[in-house]
Amino acid sequence: MQELIRRYGISLSVIMAAMTAFWLLALVVIPNLVLFKFSFRLYLPVDQLGGPNDVYTLKNYITFFQSPIHINVFFLTILYSSMVTIICLMVTYPLAYILAKVLKPTDTATFFLVLLIPLWVSEILRSFAWFIILSMQGPLNAILTGIGLIDKPIRWISGFQSVVIGLVYAYILFMLFPIYNAIQALDTNQIEASEDLGASTWRTHWRVIIPHAKPGIASGCVMVFMLCAGSVVVPTTLASTNSRWFTEIIQQWMFEGLDWNVGSAYAFLLLVLCIVFVSLVMRVLNVRLVDIAK
Amino acid sequence: MTSQTFAKIAMRVYLALFLAYMLLPLAIMGGAGLNNTRFPSVYPWVGLTDRWFIDLWNDQRMWGSVRNTTWVALAVVFISVPIGTAAAILLNSVKPNVRSFLYGFMVAPILTPGAVIGISTLLFWNSFGISAGLYLSVLGQVSFVAAYVMLLVLARLQSFDPALEEAALDLGASHGQVIRRILVPHLYPAIGAGAIIAFFQSVENFNVTLFTRGNSDTLTVYVGSKIRSGITPTINALALLLIVVTVICAVIYEVLRRRAEKRAAALVAAED
To answer: Which residue among A199, B99, B143, B240 is buried most deeply as judged by most CB within 10 Å?
Structure first.
């Protein structure tokens, strides 16, 4: 702080500190504390506010733990988000390696330039695109029946398969970019040294490249998992009645039940899930937060 | 054929497949906006039409949502860019332990689901009697967009030589001059990139906006409600327009970035 004042003077330093404080306190920390507090209060009519019923209670959380359906949806959300994360990782790791170490840098730059298009098209349109592709009369069924692979159209938008397809498409680039950045920073001499010393391709990847790419892998996994578990758009577009997502239940409480207190309890559970996942990844892959958020 | 050429071909095929996977769905979606069928589809191809674009043009709700989106995005840029820049400068000049503590709080919004940010913003401002509306969407979006700006500026600060500021101060520059003439010009590329990313993050945003918007529409919310309430190819027409705008912006962004890179390289060469 003294360093800041010495360089930029007292008034500018105060302005910068005030802006940062406004951001961290009014937009990040306190709103989440309010959410936390709200989740322990009851939804009451206005005339009962401040009355004997206006107490702190675990009731909103008990609502969750007493509802097998909601618990089921919660765990299915975790399961399928993890599945999407693993699929994205397996598809993008070889891709990131090729882009970082095999392709010529100018070709890689062109490749990424083209990828900016799907990255900058909003996720709602990206999932809508798959809604069209997967629909009964859509192009996928037309092609598959056309080449004789299937006899009659398949109902793709059913169960979790369409949600998983949509999520992978919507978030896969968030896995590719961090892993690419990590591998790109690896000195190619190290890969060559490993090969010269007789390591097989697998061993080179396992002992040299993957350890170096770990922060990128951690970053990609955290981003993709968080985006999946918190996705509102993809499940509303591509899910069906037999595949519900945890965010849909939060929405139900907020908009249909109009019970913001239960809604905030559920939102807080989602936040806890994400915090647990981030810590887990940091522990397992042994990386720091600075490595993840770049 | 040796195994090496085989591996090379396999890699090329893999890259091509991935590109096709990323681009074909968008092409199909955009193409359906030109097809003369009631339900958006490219197959069977009935005929080229512009009727979905005309329908879209006449949709007052769409225009309202475009206005709202622009307003929100500009507000997010004007608030989050100064905040993110200030936070990065601050972070760069505090002690290491304070730094990692603050850093944790600053990147947390990036790792928080949008729904949680939206609901907590709504509840917090509601307790001051401010009800849902687009200004809450702005504040909710700023909370995580500022983090992106902060990360970009922080990365740029790594290549900044603090001795330049020392020299300026020793030569009698005021604190304001140090920032205006030395620090900010060095940060321009990061601030510019931050502004563009902030704008796009805001335009794209759905989750935070959904919970904070009240009764107002933004473009993504408009598309979302259209998809739910009855799909017509007007959404595809809109998607096609948005893709075209995106392509143009992406190209401009890349050209500017390359030009800046070239200029930086030339500067380094001149210094050597």
So the answer is: B143
